[in-house]
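2024-03-11 09:14:02 DEBUG pipeline.ingest accepted 1 chain
2024-03-11 09:14:02 DEBUG pipeline.ingest length=217
2024-03-11 09:14:03 DEBUG pipeline.predict start
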Amino acid sequence: MPESAARTDEAAAPALLRANLLQARDLAAFRGERLVFEGISFQLAPGGALLLMGPNGAGKSTLLRLLAGLLAPGAGTLLWAGVPAFADRAAWAEQIAYLGHQDAVKMALSVEENLRFFARHADRPIGAALGALDLARLAPLPARFLSAGQRRRLALARLLLSAAPLWLLDEPTNGLDAAAIERLGAMLATHRDKGGMVIAATHLPLPLAGAAELALQ
């Protein structure tokens, strides 16, 4: 497979945050003995966004899982501020917030309890997260009574309770209506304005202005 590359504009990143530059060099991944992708290289600076594009089976989710440290690369290097990201797995985990296909919602807990469960590790108030995703009125409702879109909004709300600069999102708009996608867009813009970074796999347009694109074949 030919090398794919994407680059964001470093000049747009806050000067004090440029040390958090993310660099992928010739990443490859295998599923069993099958090569999923190889030669994947890109660079992402604070405030940047990268869209992973391609058909089903191209490896978008696999790449996100690799970046999240859930899958070992078959080849290549991932650097964070010039240091191999996977050299200290615990430290790398603090830099990322990963949202996969599954919402990972505890059905027996209410919306508020789900967020409080997560916030106990993040030490952040949940009020702003509830408001940002229009969940305040649903706060006392058990998650098992939520629609698919409401559960997705609850999963997205957890991102706001994380201090991680890099958000890794797998099809984040699944189940969302137009109003919820607009709220997601505001979340993403605020995160980037603060120097945060976003890498998202998607089949549909995402509200990520100026995002670079990385096409997997």
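2024-03-11 09:14:41 DEBUG pipeline.report The CA atoms of residues 98 and 168 lie 5 Å apart.
2024-03-11 09:14:41 DEBUG pipeline.predict end
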